[in-house]
């Protein structure tokens, strides 16, 4: 199995093809690649992460602005763009230039040209500058800033690129304040939140964030200090109760927007 996986990972590099989202998202086409994750090769089943799409369906409304930080192939960006409609806006931020180019190709497909999605090829961190970015050997979905790449790139690094970095607060200068932010940055979530003081205090978006165990305590503190309630998005809204500590996929809702179930 290991040899077969290694073979598939090698021959899949740079290859792309189309998959479509479900009818709930207008069967929008997305250009995918097994170079990002081998699950896109599966001939059966649904290749997209259901939790990610559920969050878009639940929280994005017509006219909303959504930010997709660590956009990868842009799955959340396209789903959010569909839900936000022609008056909404999505900013897809992806540090890997190759993945960013694939998102742009998705946006240029005839069935997606009505979506207001902008792509920013950059990494979000604590400050503006440049940083080393590790391209994962086993799948670009595990790409990460080199300074935090231990968890994400356990399968090795195929190359390291120099990429521009920005604090998330800087995005407020070029894009409307978001209604929701999705963050999936493979270990850099603390860096992202440290550079998001204005976003969290002024824009007050809902935040859907992937949190590694090694960062759970600090991410919990950053979000609760900003007066957010932590929830598990993978249970139904009626089952959601505030969490004391972040889980792997955490939904953070501003306290003044949180309505207890029941």
From TrEMBL:
<dbReference type="InterPro" id="IPR029063">
    <property type="entry name" value="SAM-dependent_MTases_sf"/>
</dbReference>
<feature type="domain" description="Methyltransferase FkbM">
    <location>
        <begin position="68"/>
        <end position="229"/>
    </location>
</feature>
<protein>
    <recommendedName>
        <fullName>Methyltransferase FkbM domain-containing protein</fullName>
    </recommendedName>
</protein>
<dbReference type="InterPro" id="IPR006342">
    <property type="entry name" value="FkbM_mtfrase"/>
</dbReference>
<dbReference type="InterPro" id="IPR052514">
    <property type="entry name" value="SAM-dependent_MTase"/>
</dbReference>
<dbReference type="Pfam" id="PF05050">
    <property type="entry name" value="Methyltransf_21"/>
</dbReference>
